[in-house]
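PROTEIN–LIGAND DATA SHEET

This sheet pairs a single protein chain with one bound small molecule, flavin-adenine dinucleotide, given as SMILES. Inputs appear in the order they were entered. The predicted three-dimensional arrangement of chain and ligand is reported afterwards as a token string under its own label.
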Amino acid sequence: MVVENSQKSNEEDLSQAINEMRAVTHKFAEDIIRPAAMKLDTMSPEDVIAKESPLFDVFRAWYGSKNHAGFADVDVNDGGKISNAVLFELGWGSSDLAVSLGVASMPFQMVDMMTRMTGDTALKGEIVDPFLEDTEGKIIGCWAITEPMHGSDMLAVGTQEYANPNTAGGCRASKDGDDWILNGQKSAWVSNGTIASHALLFCGIDSSKGAAGGGVAVVPLDLPGVHKGPPLDKMGQRALNQGEIFFDDVRIPARYMLVDPSLYTFALEMVLGTANTGMGTIFAGVARACYDEAMNYAKERSQGGRPIAQHQLVQGLLFKMFMRAEGARALSEYTIDVHAGLGIPSLPHAIASKVTSTAAAYEVASDAVQVHGGIGLAKGVLIEKLFRDARASLIEDGVNELLMLVGAGHLLTANN
Ligand SMILES: Cc1cc2nc3c(=O)[nH]c(=O)nc-3n(C[C@H](O)[C@H](O)[C@H](O)COP(=O)(O)OP(=O)(O)OC[C@H]3O[C@@H](n4cnc5c(N)ncnc54)[C@H](O)[C@@H]3O)c2cc1C
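PREDICTION REPORTED AS:
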């Protein structure tokens, strides 16, 4: 049948395109991402963002080959599968840099999406096009939502607490004529916070509605009144720069306020759904990297007169790791298919993928340290870093327990 044949050839073309992109990105992850992340892991947070830091070599390489602009020429027929393969391989390379490169495009993706709907080509030209044309990695985005006094509150969409006036954020936007004035602070957890040129800012507008009364703005961070805190020093994902952003009477034009409270919850669900989907994929890549490390080591290390891979207890552990890693990867790929079918991210699937992959990455990393024995605890050994990186992921982009409450709330509402 002609129709069946042409469908088959489209599917073959797509899987060939995915495989090619996967291979190119895997090489990038192996040659550029992983060596840079290992170096950055040993550096102080200040040195990580110094001008000559390997961090910016990574950004230059990524932007130089135009990978950062992937969302702009999205092929609807691929349903997000190519980007998913790319993120998996970046995560395999190193999660901290994968997150940093992924978050870098967030404000521009959001403006691109909004301006496609509104037809505001001037705003696209002002904000998105310079980012797409950047080949030096100078235009870097961040997602600024967490505050010192409001972490989970800001992500607890759909829960009872979300609309409680006590959960309203302290970083606020108020109207002044045609402009908005921003005041307040975002926490030290903002990824790329210190190095970002633009923020996708989630801020409070109507505090009577609690965290639900927010707005979303794109904010160039060179505006008067913007200040940054020092880079955060933390246990894992040390190549991922994080830091506070302060807003002191920062004036933005009305066109930078992309979403007002009437659409805020929808926008938060879309952004959280997209971010959690990315996390699910990146940490499926981390789980795979941990399994690979354990398998390689088990073949090399001999005890009892033969490679430890030949001992049955080690084989059992390796297969458990393989199942956890492949299960996480399968769910992350299925999640992409669900989103493609709906045309928007399904938040419960995105959360399920994020929670499954990060838990898998942490468990597989821990088992992989066990397979390594004492050397798995030594600085400079990859699995020691992967274990610390995986631990951070259980909190990143929403504490897993809180995300599961959000997911349950959505399922219960959908079933009513
Ligand atoms: C590596 C990393 C990267 C990050 N990147 C970003 C970023 O790019 N942008 C950004 O804005 N933020 C970012 N964050 C912040 C992250 O989203 C928050 O840390 C997270 O939402 C939790 O907030 P919190 O740390 O204030 O913990 P809290 O909200 O104070 O939670 C503490 C504990 O209380 C529990 N808890 C809280 N509320 C409830 C509730 N209603 N019901 C039951 N239990 C509850 C939580 O599960 C948790 O165990 C990042 C964090 C990490 C670790």
